[in-house]
Amino acid sequence: MRARRELPHPPPAETVGGWRRLFVLGALGVGAAIVLGRAFQLEVIDQDFLAAEGSKRFIRNVTIPAHRGAILDRRGEPLALSAPVETLWAVPQALLAKPQYVDAVARMIGRQPAEFRKFLQARIDRKFVYISDPMSPSEAKRVVALGAPGVFSDPSYARYYPAGEVAAQVVGFTGRDGNGLEGIERAQEAQLAGKEGSRRVIRDRSGNIVEDNLEYKPAQSGEDVQLTIDLRIQYLAYRELKEAVVKHDAKGGTIVIVDSATGDILAMASQPGYNPNNPAERKPPGTRNRAVTDLYEPGSTAKPLLVSQALELGVFQPTSTIDTAPGWFKVGSLTVRDEHDDGVMSLARILAKSSNVGAAKIGLTLGAEAVWSGLQRFGIAEPLYLSFPGEVNSVVRNYSEWGQIATATASYGYGWSTNALHEVRAYSAIANDGLMPHLRLLKNAAPVPPQRAISARTAREVRRMLETVVQPGGSATRAAVQGYDVAGKTGTARKLSDNGTYDSSRHEALFVGMVPAEQPRLVGMVIIDEPGDGRYYGGLAAAPVFARVMQGAARLLQISPDGAISPDLPAPSAPSSGTPMMVKVNARAGQ
């Protein structure tokens, strides 16, 4: 029998597990040694090399500019536009390392080579510096095409104002950062601005992009803003106002034209003005929109509001008369005077001759509270809610603070202050059969229903009275518009001096009127501030401006005339077209 061979016994499990542990531990040890060795090499041996390589590259967030929305007139004509531009920048150290390029770049960007080299040397430690104002993309491309090391361009937008000075105080302007600083540019900043985008890139030490779009966020364009302004009428208003201010050697002037039914502001101009395309001109007083910011005592232009209140309350009738003889009368210590003794006068005659005595007697008959509430019914003290920068409200003391003198003077427009927009709105109620519209400057603004100020009957009666002001024998014959009946009122207000007394040498000449008188479509106001030629009456300085602007505006809007118009009457001219100057926003050279 064959002997059974003994099989070898397997090694104990503890022995196998021990070898495996030793193997794993050994492998981990070798790996750790490799990692530590590499770390030692990087941190100690190659530290200088890696630091040098890292300094050659840096991550930069590049801003993607948002296209700013346009500002348009009611017919879609551009008043403010953004055009693409490029601004050159350089890495000073990289550019100076190649001196042969410095002079060439300097000449192409209009700088003196020596000055440019000195400019770069003073900023050699900066990563980059802007070296030009914004320029057209084609100009920037030619400079970059030189191949100068470290010279690149950033895209942005520059603001252009095609209408220039014509609509400057309405439109306003943007600052160097592209944000609105004045006018609609400021008031509608949130809608116009849009949102900038960004992209993350890696550049080398010369500024070259070596890796692009690590992160990308697109820009969002701003929205357009359309105004109620009609550029054609705006131009007429601007031209005639400027001519009158120069002619009368005046300190300044204001004009506002409104659609009496809708409250749409069709034109609004001030003098002195400025060209928003020229940053050097963007300073007061030219930037001031006087129709919004300036308060004045309305003088005799307030008398139709008083007469309207007298008729509404039934205290006076259209046929009522008042004795103004002998052309003056005393109210306490105040002497109220007229230019002439016109004796017994009707309400219409009081307006036509602009009698202070007649107005004061009406006001004293009504009493302080009634005179005050008459101003309130025309919204004189209400905010206009135009959201326009610098908007001021009228200043009218409560009637409880009035005495006899304050009541008398308030009746002919002294002792309280308002602005051109408030007064134009009040006259729009007279033009619109008693319904007073809310003024509107933004075409897409939600319409607000008009409020009843006076009855339609009172409005028509007062309009008929105001027609006599412009007819022969009235104080505003120079406000007549060929082919159209005009209703309106002159005003000549003395201005307060620094010591609180009225200065007999400083006046404001005013005229407010409407066309056509029977069914008015347009209401306008003209103010000539401090005429220096002695012709300071509203009928002499302000009324002719109204007439010329309304003549052109009525034809442009094809308003049916009341009578014949001479075929020789020239058509209203339009603003000349030309290449607008570039607004140099984001001008960062030298930073």
From TrEMBL:
Catalyzes cross-linking of the peptidoglycan cell wall at the division septum. It is a single-pass membrane protein. The keyword Calcium does not apply. The chain crosses the membrane at residues 21-40. One of its GO terms (biological process) is proteolysis. Belongs to the transpeptidase family. FtsI subfamily. Residues 253-551 form the Penicillin-binding protein transpeptidase domain. It comes from the Bacteria. Coiled coil: none annotated. It comes from Solimonas marina. Its main location: membrane. Pathway: Cell wall biogenesis; peptidoglycan biosynthesis. Gene3D superfamilies: 3.30.450.330, DD-peptidase/beta-lactamase superfamily, Penicillin-binding protein 2a (Domain 2). This is Peptidoglycan D,D-transpeptidase FtsI. It is found in: Cell inner membrane; Membrane.
